[in-house]
Amino acid sequence: MKIIIDIFFTFLKIGAFSFGGGYAMIPFIEKETVHINGWLTSMEFVDIIAISQMTPGPIAVNSSTFAGYKIAKIYGSIAGTTGVVLISFVLMTILSKSLNSVKDSPTVKNIFKGIRPAVLGLILSAALSVGKTAIIDLKSFLISTFVFIAIMKLKIHPILTIVISGVIGYIVY
Amino acid sequence: MKKLFKLFIIFFKIGAFTFGGGYAMIPLIEEEIVRVNKWVDQDEFLDAIALAQSIPGILAVNTATYIGYKIYGLPGAIFATLGAVLPSFFIILIIVMYFTETMRSPGVQRVFMGIRPAVVALILTAVFKLKKGIPRNAFTYILVFGSFLLVAILGVHPIFIIILSGTLGYFIYRRV
Lengths: 173, 176
What we know:
The structure holds 2 protein chains of 2 kinds.
Chain A: H1 2-17, H2 22-36, H3 42-54, H4 59-102, H5 106-134, H6 138-152, H7 158-172
Helix pairs in contact in A: 1-2, 1-4, 2-4, 3-4, 6-7
Chain B: H1 2-17, H2 22-36, H3 42-54, H4 59-99, H5 106-130, H6 138-152, H7 158-175
């Protein structure tokens, strides 16, 4: 029982202190699970990250579920996942509630007018950082180009393009 | 109740098909929440991303919580968050129990060689779809490319970009 509580609070801390999500959390999770608590070996941690990147969903959720299971089976994975999500869930709910009451003030409107284009820049930089490891040859460049056209011009659902690209990847590589 | 269930299903679907973490979820949420169901518009969606980025935690989950709350209050926030989290929870659980070896097989690796470049394109489409509500002026272009360069080249943390751009927005739009 104690280990379950430890897992919960460790991941609660990870969720509460990592800004920027996903990849920013990885070193933090490693430090806590491998170095401080000694729950996992370095090799197990490498496996966790590799598999988290290959499965859908947020990397932080994947790795907390995975690490939780390795440490204390199913209860560990429930404790880890709940812990990693809880603090931001509470913060986000409070934030949405308080923002709702001020969203029509001119000051808040002007602030968001400045933030919106900057968020586009953030998304653009995310595309670049994923692109660096994903677009490695002509084939991957073509897949990327076709998916872009398929969504923007042919209005194909993004999920369908992921499935098709997976099949193409299997065939061409 | 029907809306809550729909909210859950939509985020479950998004959670089940997003490879590549946080930002990869944005184009899928945009498709379902903004374009198909029209529950929030492009501007509100960008605001949700900015807020999700401003607090600690997982970007995609935070965005789901915010949108769920906006559409249906606290129950909406709970259902959307569960929807976004549960697919990866179950998928990882099944993999760690039975398929750790399978994930290392060359066949699986090849599938991912195809999916990764698709994710890049997906994220790019989000930029083009979400720019609709934003006024086209010099200030906008400076903010888009300024924040891109600061993050991509200089490695500035996104939270500083949001604080900086919000401050700039306040001072510049106050005059007009």
